[in-house]
Amino acid sequence: MDYSADLKCHVVPNSKQNGFSPILRSHKSATTLEPTEYKHIKTVYDIFWNSVKEAPEKPYLGHRPYNPQTNQYLPYVFESYKQVGERVSNLGSGIIKVRQMHSDKSKNGSILLRNWPVAIYSIARPEWIISDRALSTQSLFCVGLYDTQGQSQIEFILNHSETPVVICSLDKVHKLLSMADQLPLLKVVISMDSFERVGSNLPGEYIPSPFNTRSIDVLKHWAASKSIGLYDFKEVEEIGKQNKIDHHPPKPSENFVLLYTSGTTGNPKGVVTTHRNYTYSAISNTLSRSSYIKKNSVFISYLPLAHCYEKGQDLLATFTQGCLGFSRGDITKLFDDFQALQPTVYLGVPRILSRLYDTISAITINAPGVKGMISRRGANEKIENLVAGKGYHHSIWDPLIFDKTKAIISKRLEFIITGSAPLEPKVLNFLRISFQSLILEAYGMTEAPIISLGARPEDLESGIAGVPTIGVEIRLRDVPEMEYLTTDSPSPRGEILVRCPSVFKHYHKDEEKTKEVLIGDGWYATGDIGKINPTGTVSIIDRKKSIFKLSQGEYIAPEKIENFLSKHPLIMQSFVHGYSTKNFLVGVIVPDPVTFIPWAKKLLLETANSKENELARLMGFEQLTKNRIVNKNLVEEIDTYSRDAGLNGFEIVKAVYIDHRPFDVESNEILTPSLKLKRFHAAKYYKDTIEKLYS
Length: 695
Fold this sequence. Notes:
This protein is an alpha/beta fold. The chain has three domains: about 1-30 and about 470-545, Luciferase, domain 3 (Roll), CATH 2.30.38.10; about 45-310, 3-Layer(aba) Sandwich (Rossmann fold); about 550-695, ANL, C-terminal domain (GMP Synthetase, Chain A, domain 3, 2-Layer Sandwich), CATH 3.30.300. The strands form seven sheets. The chain has a nine-stranded mixed β-sheet with strand order 16-17-18-19-20-25-24-22-21. Helix 12 (about 350-365) packs across helix 15. The protein is globular, with a radius of gyration of 27 Å. It holds the Pfam family AMP-binding. GO terms for molecular function: ATP binding; long-chain fatty acid-CoA ligase activity. This is AMP-dependent synthetase/ligase domain-containing protein. InterPro entries: AMP-binding_CS, AMP-dep_synth/lig_dom, ANL_N_sf.
């Protein structure tokens, strides 16, 4: 590749090394990585209090109160930056105070030394952000818990992080108390929902509450029996108001948040990130998106705040003094919340954007009759204009069709960012013209919570993650075992390495795994395979490890699924595969002839007529593997077997090719000499088969 050409990124001179590509940067970071702007903002604490100072009366956090009298959600109500600031200060003081009240007096000194964790356990809602900001006022740090996490993972995370205080929604209190015997360090639980309002007919609850005053009394007695202090949010705020403690701002190097990865093959890893990591990210993301993110932007929050993607949006909104409206938490009512809020910025995920594509295309380009014909003509003309650089708007087709499709999300919509997994090009461009909005794909990860690669407005192809953002360095390194080399032509290929001040500190209590990915000189090895395109953009093309994502953003550990399938009596070997543009798994199954042949023959004899019975009796192993009825029933057998074992829906193989030829070391070279699956080679060997399974 000609790195001296006029590229969309800056190539650091003399940075090419054997086994590595040159280092790539944003043109805006050609001479220095450190932004010259916002020098006074060094921590997340600074981000929030700078916005309180500059925009005290601007709306900040909003929600839709629930009215139990009408069984309806009301319009959004907002608290200003100043109002939230007062609550944050009070809550921070209150957390320190209640922690002291439920600890040995001998430990009060260590409590005041700060830098201990507080877990937050709920859907995204204003109290999540208020809690997070409150922790920073006292140099405490957050442990993020997903609302949907199971008991075993919650138990592991709270013990692994040594968390003494949990702030949660009311529906989580009994779950925590039920595992209290397994949580010896848990001392305080704080309910985000007011105990006084339980059973009230006054508007204000976030969700229709199944609790009443009696159930609250039961919870309080239960907590007391476990020596756990149980409070509600307002109560702790009032305790803090009456016992004010001066702010104890964190240093940039101190912990900001401990987020746990999904843990598809074992216990999740705790990713320790600092105030410096997330502050640098907020500054870089703001500078890189300054043309699209304005100071009056309206964001909608509906994704888990225990994920770096949503956490990044929270800090971007706060940094730019925007307002953040929270969805009620019911994904089926999400678009009703969009209508009520009318956001200008939307952080999308492929799962929901694909659903929007299906909905909008069904009533436009895929509609029957004249409506469909007119819609297809309008969409084709708008996409041609878009590719030609003429923008997203059209004076005829927008009033006729696409103003209505834009309004499905928001009439004020200006900008969509999507990450997690790539969208197919036809989906991406159709949504661009349907929403009359800029849609950019972005690339980041928990260990480097920054948009490391971001598409530019003119990059209309899906799968192009883009160019390095401001303050980020990217390079590739050879992965010879997968035949990805930085000397490949025309596009160098290899594992993506990221270096910037947003790269995480370490994995909590796991030095070995930390050393595997922090490879020296500040580089983080992502495990993703990328290629550098002739224009200088970088595309994500594969995953180094066996873990990959489907289009809905779910991580898949194929080895785990293959090990599970191998326990089925009909299955001898299996290879599970998926594409990031598809929403389901496919597989190659090598059946065990000892069990498979009698099972398949019995199946055919029971479903066939007398003539076909005779043919079924004569079928050999290879013929049986090619039979459609046998294939269909084996897929059903795998589905039942997987569901009975508790596999997630996205982990269940939906289509299979049955191969009578076993995987081996010599004839098809799918196994290593130690009889392990060579996943990369298997994907190449069965490439055409996989394509047919998806078609």
